[in-house]
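Quick check before the chapter quiz. The format below is the same one you will see on the exam, so make sure you can read both the input and the output lines.
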Amino acid sequence: MPEGDSLYRFARRLRPVLEGQVIQAARSHGPGPVPKVERIVGATCTSVRSVGKNLLISFDNGLALRGHLRMYGTWHVYRPGEPWARPEREARLVLEVPGAVVVNFSAPVIELIEERALDHYQPIAGLGPNLLDDAFDEEEALRRFRDPARAALTIGDAIMDQRVMAGVGNIWKHETLFRCGINPWRTVAELSDNELRALISKARELLRASVGMPGPDGKPQRRPSMYVYSRAGQPCRRCYTRLRSAPQGVDIRHTVWCPRCQPIVEGQRVLPAPRTRQPR
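Here is the expected output.
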């Protein structure tokens, strides 16, 4: 699933193509409700920005497009007449501007809404602090982690709650928890404020590095290496212990962790599900 860093890169790619340009043609089709994108034809794009896992494209007529990619969506840019990398039937949204064609493939969510409604529109207004925002508020993210409704959540679930902090998905969940040495099945209530602050800081550090933002030395950073994500059964790159995996969360994704680097702690209430033999 594209995460906050992926949406940031998409916005960075679309911005010089769309901003300041007049929309010459626009079309969209299923699944789900199809926005009346013809309403933006003739309008000028005023901004392209990412907010967590959302991409927002604003126009001078007071409308905005919101795209959420979920698992398989993506954004492409082509020259007029250039062949597309994917079939046209997969195109969810097509925007034509002078010198370029912007295509969204397979996004389940494409919406056209009024810009003034964004501050009250729950998919945007309900998000926690954006990890890639220069004005990111760590204390607000901590406060949201400490909401009593999240106390019993495992940290592997809570870290991906976009209402706590926006941007972390499955990849950076894995890598943040590993680097912080936190077992994914510890509950939020079992973590100290200092542990949560370290986790918040590390998640932000990883996402910023992934998009090439400057590090402490002022130089652009490289995308971090993967220590545990998608490496179940392989040796830990730090201690060589075999990485374990178990289902976690309401969508039953498998979480991978190192039992030595991310140990179960004394008194931990939630333990990973025991490994079961797969049917032949």
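If your answer matched, good. The chain has two domains: 4-125, 138-257.
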